[in-house]
């Protein structure tokens, strides 16, 4: 016990293990990547096998935009799981609140898109603070179960639709008359794509600032040892709630962009399967590394949308039926890849360069 | 409310409780003993459902549907046992003490396993033929109760008694009960608690697979994702009942099953499900250790 | 280190610990701990609160990871898991008793009946602790602190162990119960090899012949209990006692 009462300074610095990997090069790499991605709608070249159409085609931009939204939402989830150590199984709830909230704001209150998004984000924040303060009364696995239950309640609510507003199982399509013309129609897919890119970059910037702030360092101290944070006279609950609220609002922002991408809100976005997919994205990329989570989101979005096409193209046809069937299921490949990564490369994709000896290990 | 409706809803609710209990009891024991939140438990359920479908539709050489169903029950139980055993032996065991990795692995197994079943059998809902007896009704207090409901209830109660007898009367059961309380101390008495881990996973797999069989009968159809949906309610049952307590799980399953049936019937579909979540929130706020849980973890 | 005399012409020690280090998270709890436990006598492991006494026992049992070398009964324990260490002949009476509260007294004892000869030892154990016989159907959680201690001890005695690790058997017990526990311990540990962690110096003085004193995660002193007893300065500097204690004889 005596070892636990060390000096205050220690927690703010050394307790953030693994030492904050704040590489100075990451912002430049991300910036350069952002510029490159921003230029994609002007690139008419095709990458055979990777995308079916040219880079600038709406189909390709759609896939990339979904990947970018997933990247942003995955980063928001990494704040919770990777940085604060909170295993929430209900993040889909907040993504879906942004999705449904924006849509309903336009349909019920006849707001145009931007005010509807603002309203949805404020509403999400309030809901996250209320539900978060209940769920954060318990720790660990109990927290996971409670967040799961709340999210599932919302899922049931939008699917059963007792209030006759959410469109039930069919979902609620986007009424484009409230959306700026720029973001409607297939020809304007590139504007939605740029919006998704902007969302991903903004989320990256916000998350990066947040985890480097004083609160962010406390989050990481909580992840390492919550009791000790408490012994230092800090109230972990407040910091956890802050993390919960911020990540919820960012996820809702992703939902608002996703609404334009898929032109509607369906209950699937609120399902626990979506949260489980988020976990896969974050762990695939590498827990506690924002760019890792972003990469995981991009890869996941790409694979989920492209794998069925690849499967249909007949590459698996020579295989026996019992193998061909599962291989056409994106989740079979992703799930298997995930298990292999968790078992043999716990740091995710982001750790592969180190593992393969391309970069000096930081431990 | 008329007596007939009350009796029908009660029996249906208890049937649902039986299905919940079968999946939740293994979950609760696994968590109580090993602190592992087994997200693959829904997969065990699905394995049971599809094993039954397979036997019922492909074992035409067994003429009697009743006999075929009995065979299906045994095959499903055996497959659940095998899948549960393999999950612990090849995946979970390698990561003792690392709960997050264990949760992540069971999550990946669950998604990949469901997709595997989806790839083999498609995601379309499937139905399987059931013995004629299941469709007959008996009249209890004026209510026409399908025999299948009573059968589900009977099988669940028999398994509840069998599980409790195993836990109370055998040495393995004694070690499991002791391990739920204090794993380290069991080891410090020279007992290899890891053997119990494998055993509990196998038993959990067996019970959940039988739950999958009965669930297929109860809901008159199966889909690959169905196990995951039931798993969410099983989580709720486990938390309300108290982690690691079989008796608590049984009690909680009855409460949750009846609440869901009655409220869904009288207040509209979906409201019962929401009420169950409210019950969970209330339990956590008022009694975080659950109904019969002794230790808050 | 080994030339430090323990009094008698030293017989082969049952337990030899060399260079043991234990970390818990970032905290470095034990530094290069080394000591020996001689057969057929009680060795007290003493020291102020939080110096790492319980940690030492947990590390010996493999319940906490440690580095260094531990030889038990002439064989290195290496990386053996807890249950195998215990099977080699180490019995353990933990701090705070840790009886299985939800199980009956009889079931708690039954858990230890897998040891060879345990069934034959049971009547002897029940003779030392008649309360356990009387309350065999009662849940262990409903026993008093003293009775739980008897159960924890009885359970360990069913194990034909070569070494008994006992952690603070009198912690939290009323003085009158302590006297009872000491008597029981004396009966139970006659001729046995015991490593006893004890906060209460009087209890240690009554039971132990040898002493090891830990301070800040290191072995600060080793010798005979009698030597330590007669040295008030040492007691004060290492154990913080020497002022009048309420429970001093």
Structure described in brief:
The complex is a heterotrimer of chains A (about 375), B (about 300) and C (about 250). Helices cover about 65% and strands about 0% of the residues of chain A. The model of chain B has no long low-confidence stretch (mean pLDDT about 90).
Low-confidence stretches of chain B: none
Q: Name the average pLDDT of chain B.
A: 91
Strand content of chain A: under 5%
Q: Order of SSEs of chain A, N→C?
A: HHHHHHEHHHHEHHHHH
By CATH, the architecture of chain B is named: Orthogonal Bundle
**Strand line-up across the major sheet of chain B:** 1-2
Distance between the termini of chain A: 27 Å
Oligomer: heterotrimer
Tell me the overall shape of chain B.
globular
Count of DSSP H/I helices of chain B: 12
3D structure, described in words:
The complex is a heterotrimer of chains A (363), B (297) and C (249). Chain A is mainly α and 363 residues long. Chain A has 15 helices and 2 strands. Chain A has a two-stranded antiparallel ribbon. Chain B is mainly alpha-helical. Chain B has a single domain (3-286), classed as Orthogonal Bundle (ABC transporter involved in vitamin B12 uptake, BtuC). Chain B is built from 12 helices and 2 strands, in the order αααααββααααααα. In chain B, strands 1-2 form a two-stranded antiparallel ribbon. The longest helix of chain B is centred in the N-terminal third of the chain and has 32 residues, at 3-34. Chain B starts with a helix and ends in an 11-residue tail after the last helix. With 249 residues, chain C is an alpha/beta fold. Mean pLDDT of chain C is 88; it is low at 243-249. The interface between A and C is small, with 9 and 8 residues.
Blueprint (SSEs and pairs):
The complex is a heterotrimer of chains A (363), B (297) and C (249).
Chain A: H1 8-13, H2 25-39, H3 58-83, H4 91-109, H5 113-135, H6 140-160, E1 172-173, H7 189-212, H8 214-224, H9 226-231, H10 236-262, E2 264-265, H11 272-285, H12 290-312, H13 321-327, H14 330-344, H15 352-355
Antiparallel strand pairs in A: 1-2
Helix pairs in contact in A: 3-7, 3-10, 3-11, 3-12, 4-5, 4-6, 4-10, 5-10, 7-8, 7-10, 8-10, 11-12
Chain B: H1 3-34, H2 41-58, H3 65-92, H4 99-121, H5 132-135, E1 137-140, E2 143-146, H6 147-169, H7 171-181, H8 183-187, H9 193-218, H10 226-241, H11 246-267, H12 271-286
Antiparallel strand pairs in B: 1-2
Helix pairs in contact in B: 1-6, 1-7, 1-9, 1-10, 1-11, 2-3, 2-4, 2-9, 2-10, 3-9, 6-7, 6-9, 7-9, 10-11, 10-12, 11-12
Chain C: E1 15-24, E2 27-37, E3 42-46, H1 53-61, E4 67-72, E5 75-76, H2 82-87, E6 90-93, H3 105-110, H4 118-128, H5 130-134, H6 145-157, E7 163-167, H7 175-189, E8 194-197, H8 201-207, E9 210-215, E10 218-224, H9 225-230, H10 232-239
Parallel strand pairs in C: 3-8, 3-9, 6-7, 7-8
Antiparallel strand pairs in C: 1-2, 1-4, 4-5, 9-10
Helix pairs in contact in C: 6-7
